[in-house]
Amino acid sequence: YGFLSSSITFNYDTGFPTSAITSISNNAFYTAANIPLLSGTAMDEEQAGRVLVSSYSLRDTSLATGRYWDGSTFTAGNSEQFFALANSGANNVWSIAPPTNMLVSGRSYEVRFRAVDRAGNLEPLTEKTTFYFDISTPTTKINAPTDGQYLTSLATVTISVLDNLLSVNSIQKVEYSIYVDTGGFYRAATRDFESTTQYFNPAVSTMSNLSFVFASSVPWVSGRKYTITSRATDKSGNQPTTFSLATDSVSFVFDNTPPAVGVIEPSGLREVNVPTLTGTAQDLPVFGNQLISAV
User: Fold this and answer.
1) 8 A C-beta contact, residue 290 and residue 260
2) In terms of Cα–Cα distance, which of 281, 290, 146, 291 is closest to 224?
3) What is the mean pLDDT of the chain?
4) With 60 as the cut, is the pLDDT of residue 23 above it?
5) What is the largest CA-CA distance in the chain?
6) Shortest CA distance to 16 belongs to which of 119, 167, 92?
7) How far apart are the first and last CA of the chain?
8) What is the pLDDT of residues 97-155, one digit of tens each?
9) How far is 56 from 40, CA to CA, in rounded Å?
10) What span, in angstroms and rounded, lies between the C-alpha atoms of 284 and 295?
11) Cβ distance 256 to 153 under 8 Å?
């Protein structure tokens, strides 16, 4: 008599898989141009092939509850839903493009991954990763000096900043440029006006009132007209490309040289009749932009 036999191999698995988000940094800022794929890894007992699928959920945090992504929009009051990520071949990387056209500038979003292995074990819920979406350009205002001033000294320039996400510390840097009417832009590192193209220097923040200042190291020259321009760059990379006079761009004349005066009439030590006192007044240096206001 002959004997027939058969066998099957199976994996017994009661452990759950683990996933991780690798492309989105927690509390990071993104624009439509630089937001990455929603991407991460998923493993089950150190094996990528034992993961059946990894999924994601996405929430708009503008409401206290709900407003989860439902596959086509963010719906107020709904519960968390997970959608499958795409596996990059046979490795452990899973990803999908975010719904960028549905993200609202100035809001924060929470993303979470969750994996299922081939035995049906579901990964417990993990912490969400928060990111900010921002396509709004920050604005600056030069508070001092004001446009059109004539100054004998200038120790400090103050600049204030506004941004739609300022409450979550969205500003990356604030900069200023100074142009002198003889031609050239100021470079703080070398303390000269030798740059032939617009050159922006970093401004120092007091951070107590979100104002930015720079000190008196600029070699101002009497009689010259200067134009100061400020700009801010937020953590999403947004920065202005145009500037407005008297807001983020001001001009002033620096003049710390006293004017010279001369008497024409009377001309002698003794005068019998002097109907009119005449003389001259000239501000120095003669090549400058100064203005005599009264004699």
Assistant:
1) no
2) 290
3) 86
4) yes
5) 158
6) 119
7) 133
8) 999 999 999 999 999 999 999 888 999 999 999 999 999 999 999 999 999 999 999 88
9) 10
10) 15
11) yes
3-state secondary structure 71-119: CCCEEECCCCCCEECEECCCCCEEEECCCHHHCCCCEEEEEEEEEEECC
Q: How far is CA 78 from CA 66, 74, 112, in A?
A: 5, 9, 16
pTM of the entire structure? 0.82
Residue 39: left if φ>0, alpha if ψ -120 to 50, beta else—which one? Answer: beta
Does the structure show a pLDDT above 90 at 293?
Answer: no
Q: Which of 163, 142, 162, 143 is nearest to 249 (CA)?
A: 142
Residue type, 265: E
CA 98, CA 31: separation in Å to the nearest integer? 12
Would you state the structure tokens that stand for residue 85, as one six-digit string?
């990520």
Amino acid at 163: D
Q: How far is residue 263 from each of residues 266, 280, 294, measured CA to CA in Å? A: 7, 6, 15
In this structure, what token pair is assigned to residue 125?
């819920």
Q: Cα 51 to chain center, whole Å?
A: 40
* Per-residue pLDDT tens over the stretch 203-222: 877 665 566 777 668 999 99
- The encoded tokens of residue 34 equal 């630089």
Q: Dump the DSSP string for 139-200.
A: EEEEEESPTTEEES----EEEEEE-TTGGGT-EEEEEEEEEETTS-EEETTTTEEEESS---
- pLDDT of 97 reads 97
Lookup: tokens for 18? 């683990």
**Cβ atoms of 20 and 113 closer than 8 Å:** yes
